[in-house]
Recover the amino acids of this structure.
């Protein structure tokens, strides 16, 4: 499944790069044909890139939510689950160590006063 996720993300990034390159090429051609000024083309590209980044972020958020839902459905532990359990284990180990230390210390009896 991890390989599938990597391939999906790589494809997404690849499409974004190709789309950006295509946008730049189209805008350059429009400037060459006189359909757009260089300053207008720059503004258009900035707007298109900003919109693309925004849409990419929305897609990333959707994918994160979807993956979280799938992992929950598959009952797979998350990193947070594992970290929480590790913390609980550390706390229990500390308690056990204190108890062992407390129980291994000999009890000192008071000297018999002969009463």
């Amino acid at each position: 499944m991890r390989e599938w996720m990597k391939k999906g993300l790589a494809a997404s990034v690849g499409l974004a790069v190709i789309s950006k390159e295509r946008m730049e090429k189209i805008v350059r051609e429009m400037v060459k044909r006189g359909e757009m000024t260089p300053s207008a083309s720059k503004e258009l590209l900035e707007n298109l890139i900003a919109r693309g980044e925004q849409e990419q972020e929305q897609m990333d958020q959707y994918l994160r939510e979807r993956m979280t839902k799938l992992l929950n459905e598959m009952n797979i532990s998350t990193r947070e689950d594992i970290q929480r359990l590790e913390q609980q284990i550390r706390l229990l180990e500390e308690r056990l160590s204190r108890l062992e230390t407390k129980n291994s210390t000999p009890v000192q009896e008071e000297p018999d006063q002969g009463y």
